[in-house]
Specification:
single chain; alpha/beta; 434 Repressor (Amino-terminal Domain); Rossmann fold; six-stranded mixed beta sheet; globular
């Protein structure tokens, strides 16, 4: 006999498998977008609420899945979206698409002027459909799990690299999208924000906006976008990036100072683990990269 938890798990996995959030799948099936929200799965008195057979039939119909496949989603733990598997998949995809490069002998010069044996270009990833699709599905699931769809009113991409990722994620979450400019265009409350944002949501509360960007080093650049959104009346408590360097202590401090929780698919440590496991680079390069990740401020290229 299937349990309440298993049925809802299968719905979540069915949505993720086909590139939807649970609410996006409900909407696609012609149901109320909130039908599968986590807040709807238990009644106010704590009793479990079960999805109707009609709603299950509708989502199977629009996805082309059978009831056997639906039950298989419960039994197949390999489809579960846990953070470790997401991080590994992300690292693998970035390496496969050469969106990440290692070169200890001829290091890269970063915008800060710092020498680095590693380089990442998240903009490159948007051209690879299979990898992009998998990672954006994972991003939607991650934000749904860690924030809750009911706590997201808008998704805002930061100019410029955050805009495509904001669009991909907004579509999967079935949420309205905004994008935020680095400089104002015009005057007024929304001078730097493209799109439409309500001044108040149901009950008079301020809209909850999640900022989307491609990557984060120390987090300093996020302040511009977050300040603009807050000045326009938004509540910004969460930001998402495809990739977080994960090696600079200033990153955590900057996010804490801004009062923002950062969500990311992977870090350099995840990439290093996959690179070692798959023998992507020679031992000297891997060792030098590891030295850099442990002490990026004082790293020196090998001679």
């Amino acid at each position: 006999m299937l349990t309440h938890e298993q049925i809802w798990l299968a719905i979540d996995r069915l949505a993720s498998t086909h590139g939807y959030s649970p609410s996006g799948l409900a909407k696609h099936a012609g149901l109320d977008p909130t039908s599968f929200n986590k807040s709807k799965r238990m009644s106010p008195d704590g009793k479990p609420r079960w999805p109707s057979t009609e709603s299950i039939s509708k989502i199977l119909n629009v996805t082309g899945e059978t009831m056997q496949n639906f039950i298989g989603l419960i039994e197949n733990d390999a489809r579960a979206f846990d953070k470790a598997s997401i991080a590994k998949t992300t690292a693998q995809s970035l390496l496969n698409t050469q969106s990440i490069l290692f070169n200890a002998r001829e290091p890269f010069t970063l915008k800060s002027g710092r020498s680095s044996p590693v380089y990442i270009d998240c903009r490159r990833l948007v051209s690879f459909v299979e990898e992009r699709t998998a990672l954006m599905n994972a991003a939607a699931q991650l934000l749904s799990d860690e924030i809750g769809l009911e706590n997201i009113d808008y998704v805002a991409g930061g100019e410029t690299a955050g805009i495509p990722y904001g669009a991909f994620i907004a579509d999967r979450l079935a949420k309205p999208m905004l994008y935020v400019r680095k400089q104002p265009k015009g005057y007024g409350r929304m001078a730097q924000i493209e799109g439409h944002m309500e001044e108040a949501m149901e009950g008079g509360r301020k809209p909850n906006v999640v900022l989307i960007e491609d990557l984060q080093t120390d987090g300093g650049s996020k302040k511009i976008f977050i300040d603009v959104l807050r000045e326009a009346g938004a509540v910004v408590e969460h930001a998402f990036v495809v990739f977080h360097y994960g090696i600079f202590t200033a990153s955590g401090k900057n996010m804490a100072d801004l009062g923002v929780n950062l969500h990311a698919l992977a870090t350099w440590w995840d990439v290093l683990d996959v690179a070692k496991e798959q023998n992507y680079f020679d031992a000297q390069t891997l060792s030098s990269v590891e030295d850099f990740l442990n002490d990026p401020e004082n790293w020196v290229a090998p001679t």
